[in-house]
Amino acid sequence: MSDFVTVNLDTIPDLLKSEKPVLLTIGAPWCIDCRRAQPFLMALAKQYSDRMVFAGANVDECPGIRETYDVKHIPTMIIFKGGKPQENRLVEVKTPGELKAFIEEGLKD
């Protein structure tokens, strides 16, 4: 599996069967904050790929994803453990440090 996979509403359930935590990023190519976060998201995906699965969904190509995961703003990052979304979300990430801290928190038991 690559460091980052693209998913949709049909493929997310299989992805969430992973034994590793899953970081799902919901965004869009036209979203400035999404584009700004992309380089450090990819770098962190490479760094943490042995401990976490990184996936992304495009809101324009996944009708209903906003409603399914209660997404109000993009990018929204949700960590799933055991197939269940964790309470904390990262919305409109601004810095690499902010994302790294979110990932580290998501890796704790």
Structural overview:
With 109 residues, the chain is of the alpha/beta class. It has one domain (5-107): Glutaredoxin. 34% of the residues lie in helices and 26% in strands. The chain has a five-stranded mixed beta sheet, covered by helices on one side. Helix 2 links the parallel strand 2 and strand 3. The two termini are 24 Å apart.
CATH architecture: 3-Layer(aba) Sandwich
Number of helices: 4
Assigned CATH class:
Alpha Beta
List SSEs in N-to-C order: EHEHEHEEH
Structural class: alpha/beta
Shape: globular
Gyration radius from CA atoms, angstroms: 12 Å
- Termini separation: 24 Å
- Percent range for helical residues? 25-40%
List keywords for this structure.
Thioredoxin_domain; alpha/beta; Glutaredoxin; 5-stranded mixed sheet; protein-disulfide reductase activity; Thioredoxin-like_sf
Gist?
With 109 residues, this protein is an alpha/beta fold. The chain contains four helices and five strands; from the N terminus they run βαβαβαββα.
Secondary structure layout:
Elements: E1 5-6, H1 12-15, E2 22-27, H2 32-48, E3 53-58, H3 65-68, E4 76-81, E5 84-91, H4 96-107
Parallel strand pairs: 1-3, 2-3
Antiparallel strand pairs: 2-4, 4-5
